[in-house]
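In practice, a research group might receive sequence data for several interacting partners and want a quick structural hypothesis before committing to experiments. The following worked case mirrors that situation: the sequences arrive first, and a predicted assembly follows.
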Amino acid sequence: DGGITQSPKYLFRKEGQNVTLSCEQNLNHDAMYWYRQDPGQGLRLIYYSQIVNDFQKGDIAEGYSVSREKKESFPLTVTSAQKNPTAFYLCASSNRGYSYEQYFGPGTRLTVT
Amino acid sequence: AQRVTQPEKLLSVFKGAPVELKCNYSYSGSPELFWYVQYSRQRLQLLLRHISRESIKGFTADLNKGETSFHLKKPFAQEEDSAMYYCALIKNTGNQFYFGTGTSLTVIP
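A structural hypothesis for the assembly, expressed as tokens:
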């Protein structure tokens, strides 16, 4: 373990508030990813970034935003526009390019009430 | 469109019995397929990938393009194999992974 960290482990927010989840890696990986994990639905891609200052939407980007100002950091903001924000969020990184293994963080469980 | 299908949410086998976790995919090109595993209280991690054609912890998986399947197999299940298993696909045109919904494997002592 180690190499890719997410904080905090648990996060609680009131409805209507934006919240930012942290993801940091020291693996010198170019690519970083955010997934959402819900029971019975597997992992769904929210956003990914293959290089600094560039990112692409995944399958469920609505209500989320990201930035990639530094190679080692890829924070995810869950906005008030996300209709169902309570979930387990996983960050991953990999070397850029086809077929490289993804390394996952420990995850952040977000609860919005 | 569902690109990766794992039909079994839960699978229980006895220790020493063979185990097969099913994975089917839909993609017309040449994908690369992976199996990821998440043990209790551990991170999601790569188990094996089809391009390596290797056996990891006794598990193997063969890509069957005709049946568009990538089933994970082990001849003799061990208790430590109990975990959540995800099949994943990456298209040969990009860097985006598609994961299945996962199969929770329980090996009964």
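Before designing any experiment, note the following. The mean pLDDT of chain A is 91. DSSP finds no helices and eleven strands in chain A.
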